[in-house]
Design a protein that fits this description.
This protein is of the alpha+beta class. About 30% of the residues lie in helices and about 35% in strands. The chain is built from 9 helices and 15 strands. A 6-stranded antiparallel barrel has the order 7-10-8-13-15-14. Helix 2 crosses helix 3 and helix 6 crosses helix 7. The longest helix is centred in the first third of the chain and has 20 residues.
């Protein structure tokens, strides 16, 4: 099988650069027909993957974090959303800061993940398709692999980018969460799930999930599955932040769905619109994308993954 490796050398605060000699050696042991490209900067992986698939590559290996995976997944599709090579598959080699996607599928990290190429086990998984407002004001679409969210979570994503790079990944998200809480205010939004308005206005956070974890291990949608054809929507309503903070451990253990201020629902099509002119920022797979309004729909069996 023709295999093309996309490497993000900046992932994991330089972890990929440190691991690369061992990673490359194992990758070449696992696949005889192998080519490698390093991403030159943010956003580049999508076009690199599109080019590789158009050239006939059959398997794409993504070496990096959840942001790298997000870019790579979008490379499986043309700008209009059409699949470029429906039979091609993705192999994730998680080496980033959060690596939340791998938690749902129990994928190992680093060099140990290279064994995924040798096992040859593939599954079709769902994706999220988002239509939202880009920073330049245009409407655009994008796919997400794991979770799309807005509210407090988008502030956390921005804070992670500004947090101390010397901190290990296990600490960067909690530190970013504390920073984000200092500036956070609830967002007045209109929410609709499968054409039914949700009787919720002010929110702290909304997560539309394909996988179950984000933010460095927060089990925000503990019942979500990648192959069930559903969106799992978790909403943190406008309750005192202290009420949520006192039970923060419940979010990490995935036992928070019965807490005061938490609403969980399931469907196939979700929309959110802001009630004011204040921008409400949207993130997906740990990448800040743009603003509401947003429409999220599940695309069943959209991507073949080897794990």
């Amino acid at each position: 099988m023709r295999t093309h490796v996309i490497v993000n050398p900046a992932a994991g605060n330089g972890r990929v650069r440190r691991l690369w000699p061992r990673l490359e050696s194992r990758l070449r042991e696992a696949s005889a027909d192998l080519s490698v490209e390093w991403t030159p900067g943010p956003g580049a992986a999508t076009e690199l993957v599109r080019s590789a698939l158009r050239d006939g590559e059959e398997r794409i290996v993504a070496v990096g974090g959840d942001g790298t995976l997000h870019e790579v997944v979008n490379g499986f599709f043309a700008a209009d959303g059409a699949p470029l090579a429906p039979a091609a598959c993705l192999v994730p080699i998680p080496c980033g800061t959060g690596t939340d996607f791998r938690r749902a599928l129990s994928i190992p990290t680093g060099v140990e993940a290279v064994e995924l190429l040798e096992k040859g086990q593939t599954e079709w998984i769902d994706l999220l398709r988002l239509h939202y407002t880009a920073p330049d004001g245009s409407r655009t679409q994008r796919y997400a692999l794991n979770i799309a969210s807005f509210g407090l979570s988008s502030r956390v994503v921005r804070a992670v980018a500004r947090s101390w790079s010397a901190l290990p990944g296990s600490l960067r998200y909690p530190v970013a969460l504390l920073r984000a809480l200092r500036a956070h205010r609830s967002c007045p939004v209109d929410l609709t799930l499968d054409d039914t308005p949700l009787e919720i206005s002010g929110i702290h956070l909304v997560a539309v999930a394909n996988g179950h974890a984000f933010g460095g291990g927060i089990q925000i949608a503990p019942k979500a599955r990648f192959d069930d054809g559903d969106l799992d929507v978790t909403i943190l309503r406008d309750v005192p932040v202290w009420t949520l903070l006192r039970r923060i451990y419940r979010f990490y253990s995935g036992t928070h769905l019965t807490l005061e201020g938490v609403t969980a629902a399931r469907g196939q099509h979700f929309t959110a619109r802001p009630q004011t002119d204040t921008p409400v920022w949207l993130e997906a797979d740990g990448e800040l994308l743009g603003q509401l309004p947003v429409t999220v729909e599940v695309v069943p069996e959209a991507l073949q993954i080897q794990f």
